[in-house]
Every structure is written in C-alpha cells, then in structure tokens.
Amino acid sequence: MKRSTRWIYVLAALVLAGTATPAQKTQQAATPALASASAADQKNGTGIVPSGIQLAPQMPAAGAPRPFHFPQAATNTLPNGLRVFVITDHSQPAVAARLVILSAGTIKDPKSLPGVAEMTANLLTQGTQKRSAQEIAEAIDFIGGSLEASAGKDSSAVTLNVVKKDLQTGLDLMSDVVLHPAFRGEELDRQRQQLLSNLTVQYSDPDYLASVVFNRALYGSSPYGWPQEGTPETIKKLDSAQLAKFRDSNYAPNQSLLALAGDISPEEAFAVAEKYFGSWPKLDVAASVPLAPEASAGMHIWLIDKPDAVQTQIRVGKLGIRRGDPNYIPVVVMNRIFGGGYNSRLNTEVRVKKGLTYSAYSSFNPHRYTGSFAAGTYTRTEATVEATKLVLDLIGKMSTGDVTPLEMNFSRDYLAGVYPIQSETAEQVAERVLTAAAFDLPADYNSTYPERIRSVTSAQVQEMAKRYLTTKDIDLVLAGNVSAFGDALKKDFPNAKYEEIPFDQVDVLAGDLRKPKESAGTGK
Q1: What residue ranges define each of the domains in the chain, with the CATH number in brackets?
Q2: Model pTM?
Q3: Residues 44-68: b if buried by 16+ CB within 10 A, e if exposed
Q4: Which H or E element spans position 119?
Q5: Angle between helices 405-421 and 328-338 (to 10 degrees)
Q6: What span, in angstroms and rounded, lies between the C-alpha atoms of 454 and 409?
Q7: CA dist 232 → 202, 221, 366, 519 (Å)
Q8: Which residues pair with 475 in a beta bridge?
C-alpha cells in the first residue's frame, strides 16, 4: 500500500470517528482500523499506525437526498414564431443566451455532400455584412464574453455568455451573426484549410477511423451516419453560395428556440428578444424526415487495416433509442450500470480486472428520429481478440437484465445526485430547458428528473437490457494491424460477415466504404 493511501485511510478513520451517527459508529466498530485507533494517535495526529492494527478502506455512508428545485422558465412566442424561454437567477451578474435552430442539423446536409451545415455554423461568427471576423472577435473579447456557433445532428446552435451590463452588446453581436452572415470566400478558405489539415491527421488515426466507420456502418445510408464535418473530398467542393443557400433555406425563427438564463427578468428578456430577433423573417421550412437506418442482420465485422498500428481501436454496437422515447430514462440507468462510468461493469472487467486497456465505455446516443448504442475500448494488438470477446461477452451477459440491488442503488444515486451539479451554470440551465422543448419532453421533465431516475425499477432495467443489448444482430469495427489478429478473430467468430479495408482506402460515403479502384491508394 502506498504511503499516501495509508494517510488517506488514517484521516478518514479520524473524521468518521468524530462525526459518525450512532448507527455509523456501530458499523465502524466492525472495522479493525477504526475501532482500534488509539485516542492518543487521534489527538496527536502522528500518523503512526499502532502495532497489530490493520487499516482498511471504508466508503462513507450516503446521506439522505437533498431537495432539488430546477428553476421554472417563463415562455413567450414572438410574432415571427420564435419561442423564447427565460430562466431568472440573480445569484450571479451574468446572462447566457442560447439559440437552437431545429431545422438546421447536419441531417439536412445535401445528399453525398456532408459538411455544409457544420461549415455554415462555423462561418457565422467569421464575418457579417457589417463586421469582419476580427471585429467580431475583438468586440466579444473586449467585454469578456464568448460567442460560439456549432452544428449537431438534429440542430445548429449559437451560444452567448456575457455579464449582465454587456447583454445588449452581446445580443447585438449574436443577432448580427445569425441574421446577416457574410460567408466571405477568404474566411471559407481559411476554415477549409484548417479542417483539411485536421482531417489529414485524423484519417491516419485508428481512433478516428474506427468511430467514423462505425457510425457509417451502423446507420447505413441514413444521414445520421455521415461525418458531421464532411470528408476531404466534400469539403473541397464547398463554396460560399452553398453555405448561404443552406442558411437561407433552413434558418427560420419559427423553427427555433431561444433561451435566456441568469440575471434577467422575463419582461426584460422578452423585450430584448423582440429587439434583436423580432425582425428575423418567418420562413416556411419544408418538413423532412431523414431516411431511417436499417438494423443489422447477424454479426458484421469491419476491419480497418493500419499495419503500423500498435493498438487496436474496438467499437461494438447497434441501433438504439431516440431522445423522446418514454424509455430513455430507464435506458440511462441501465447504461450507467453497464458502461457509463469508471466503476461500471465494462470498465471494471476490461480495465481494472484484466488490464487490457485504460478505458472502456458504453453510451446511448439518442437523436430526434433514431439513436445508437456503442461500446468502445482500445488495447494492445496482441490482446485484440481477447478484448473483443470480453466486450461481447459482457454485452451478452448484461442483455439478460440481471442486476444487483447494489448496482441499481449506485446507478440511481449517482445519476440523481450529479444532476444538480450539472445544472448549476446559466448555460447549463438554458441547454436543459431547450433540450426538453426541442424533443417535446414533459413540461416538468427537468424539475422531476432526479425523481424519475430514482423511480426506475430493476424490472425496467431488465426489460431495456433485453431489448437493446442483445448480441445476435450487431456491428463491430476494429482498426489496427489486421494481419496480427485477423485470423484469430475469424476463428473465434466464424459466422460473422467480414469486410477488410486498408486505412488509406476508406471512403465513408461509398456504399461499401471503399474508395473507387481508380483512386484507391492515389490520395485522390
């Protein structure tokens, strides 16, 4: 045992001995280290363990849940259809504003040309009709704020953080980049070169390749499987006119949500929302539902060969749950048990017990129309088959739905307990309010979330595990030195369907994920 660890246990013993309740003192008496520590050692703080004493770690008992009150939002809809949410909190002299454009997600990218939505969002803050990129950056830096724009699968978002006294300046900048972006050619070229440089590195990284191929294999021809940032080929094709067209066709106030959270009253917030966004013209955006992905049939293993790799990136998964599904919360509890934390089953077995990796995780990634389940890890090349088998075995075991009371209690307590911590800042609160609105969740969703988590039963977790974690139909992607593990993998999984692609021939937009023969290996 390390010296620092012994000090921690001694300190814990002293603290618990002095503050425990009668019930806790009874429990402590059963632990030799706590029961036998002498009064002199406690008083003098020598740190010397008396002869015959064996120290043992003991986790403090959990306290009773504290009441949590998520702030209520006042709402209003402007004449142009923009829905405004206001969450007042005068504890800090700051305001966060978050605008979500529901009709401008990357799933709206033109077919076979991913990257338009994200590049459009990236260029919003890089110049408007009256301000250059440098002027915008200097203006927001001068007031010590932040102004950012990004695109996700289902929506694009613009976020502003400022102190209260600079709110008008911040909203003037925010509305300018949303309503009057310039999409200047020189700024597009600069962003393009930065992105191409990043992708040049990423396409040689097994971690990136495994993830991008996994998403594409999982979602098939659905735009949910396209890389949000695009590919080197599609990025080179982008021009300012395409970005302007995407913005003009999809950025609509009647398809958007605006939240203002912090040191601001509802009356003031509605007034500034009208002042800065009221002139945004309403737009009829054609409703469109993306192509639904098809579930895999059987086991499909994609091998991305990178001969110089010394580790193998492993991804395992299948289609999952959409964000608005009523079963989403039981799934969250179930995943926390399986792979949603350091002490989850997956990380405990693959990392802690077997020492095959530094990290093993699982996640459910929900979107508006669909979602996915993914388990991921990486390991040294010679342990690839062992780690892959272990991950699949653990998924299969979890799919039985058998969970212990200890696992249930820890998962629920953790998720319910961390929720208030993750809802402290104005930006966090604004994002939670808009998430509930964007996915048509119940009006009391955020205020009742901890109770919803704590009310999840073992039977619900069992049902979700059986529904979403079967290994019968599943996709696997392994990126690494295939020649070192491929034969052994095929021996252990003889009934799987295999696809092997050299890393420099990957084309995530092609039906078979391969570059055409004439360009394979040429870099074109």
Answers
A1: 1-61 (no CATH), 74-277 (3.30.830.10), 299-505 (3.30.830.10)
A2: 0.85
A3: eeeeebeeebebeebeeeeeeeeeb
A4: helix 116-124
A5: 110
A6: 8
A7: 11, 19, 27, 14
A8: 300, 317
Whole-number Å distance between alpha carbons of 508 and 504:
12
Q: Is 365 helix (H, G, I), strand (E, B) or coil?
A: strand
Give yes or no for residue 4 having a pLDDT over 60.
no
- Residues with Cβ < 8 Å from 2, sequence gap 6 or more? none
Separation between Cα atoms, residue 320 and residue 296, nearest integer Å: 12
DSSP characters for 308-358?
T-SEEEEEEEEE---TT-TTHHHHHHHHHHHTSSTTSHHHIIIIIIT---S
Q: Give, in order, the Cα–Cα distances in Å from 264 to each of 147, 168, 256.
A: 19, 12, 21
Q: CB of 461 within 8 A of CB of 403?
A: yes
Cα–Cα distance, 453 to 327 (Å, whole number) = 11
pLDDT tens string 115-173 = 999 999 999 999 999 999 999 999 999 999 999 999 999 999 999 999 999 999 999 99
Question: What is the C-alpha separation between 496 and 178, in angstroms, rounded?
Answer: 49
Q: What is the rounded distance in angstroms from the CA atom of residue 522 to the CA atom of residue 524? A: 5
